[in-house]
């Protein structure tokens, strides 16, 4: 039976709160940046995932020049627990484990002494981003490449088994995407993941509870902030100018993003209604 915002028996017996990490994060908590692929895209980039090297360097230069302090995952977790942290501080995260991370991003970050967290799908190491047609030929880093990244200051986390949307999953599926994925990553790389990132940024009570019960220290979403086990992140896109990047670092942008994230049910409802009334054969917007 699918989990639909009900608390599992394990949550009741393990002492996990009915909704783990439910208390929202304050607006002044450290920003979390979310990247995906790096370099020039080999073809169309409809989801705006590729950040080219000049822009990535310009963004890092801006952060350094304006006094933003990069945090390690240890420092970020301490901030969640109440440790004093500069207002201008950030955690840099990367999703999917594209091969360009080891080739381009990790060396650049290491040169600048910027720690980061890379979220990978243990069921697809060395494979391709097969979950989305426009990127199905994009190669993902194999285990051998991932093993070298912690030495460059890049910690490894879990991004589900194979980039499955973490909503309405039954207990068996949650076990695969949360616990077994963590075990597989440790077997392949020797790293015990401490952080989880929800594919597509979507989550529900079942997935948040499963992540908390598995012993992860934190989990990351996108705009749908829900406390420690669904931290909101800033999606850095290929179309962002440096001005847009600066705007995304502001408290105002964070507030608007969170409000938009909480309205996801309304947005989905509107899309469903439009789909029902759209004439047969009408074209869809990309």
TrEMBL record:
Gene3D superfamilies: Glycoside hydrolase/deacetylase. It comes from the Bacteria. It holds the Pfam family Polysacc_deac_1. Residues 88-286 form the NodB homology domain. GO terms for molecular function: hydrolase activity. Its EC number is 3.-.-.-. Residues 1-23 are annotated as: Disordered. Keywords: Hydrolase, Signal. Residues 1-12 have a biased composition (Polar residues). It is found in: Secreted. This is Polysaccharide deacetylase family protein. It comes from Pseudonocardia charpentierae.
């Amino acid at each position: 039976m699918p989990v639909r915002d009900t608390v599992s028996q394990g949550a009741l017996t393990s002492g996990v709160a009915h909704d783990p990490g439910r208390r929202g994060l304050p607006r002044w908590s450290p920003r979390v940046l979310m990247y995906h692929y790096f370099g020039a895209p080999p073809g169309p980039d409809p989801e705006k995932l590729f950040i080219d090297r000049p822009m990535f360097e310009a963004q890092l230069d801006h952060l350094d020049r304006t006094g933003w302090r990069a945090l390690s995952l240890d420092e970020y977790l301490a901030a969640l627990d109440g440790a004093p942290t500069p207002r201008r501080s950030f955690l840099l995260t990367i999703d999917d484990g594209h091969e360009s991370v080891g080739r381009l991003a990790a060396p650049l970050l290491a040169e600048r002494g910027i720690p980061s967290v890379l979220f990978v799908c243990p069921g697809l190491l060395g494979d391709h981003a097969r979950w989305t047609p426009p990127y199905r030929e994009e190669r993902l880093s194999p285990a051998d490449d991932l093993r070298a990244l912690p030495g460059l200051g890049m910690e490894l986390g879990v991004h589900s088994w194979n980039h499955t949307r973490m909503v309405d999953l039954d207990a068996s599926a949650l076990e695969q995407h949360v616990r077994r994925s963590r075990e597989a990553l440790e077997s392949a790389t020797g790293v015990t993941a401490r952080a989880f990132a929800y594919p597509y940024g979507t989550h529900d009570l079942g997935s948040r509870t499963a992540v908390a019960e598995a012993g992860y220290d934190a989990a990351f979403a996108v705009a749908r902030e829900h406390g420690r086990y669904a931290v909101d992140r800033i999606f850095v896109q290929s179309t962002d100018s440096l001005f847009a990047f600066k705007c995304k670092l502001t408290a105002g942008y964070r507030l608007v993003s969170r409000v938009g994230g909480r309205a996801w049910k309304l947005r989905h409802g509107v899309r469903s209604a439009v789909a029902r009334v759209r004439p047969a054969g009408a074209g869809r917007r990309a």
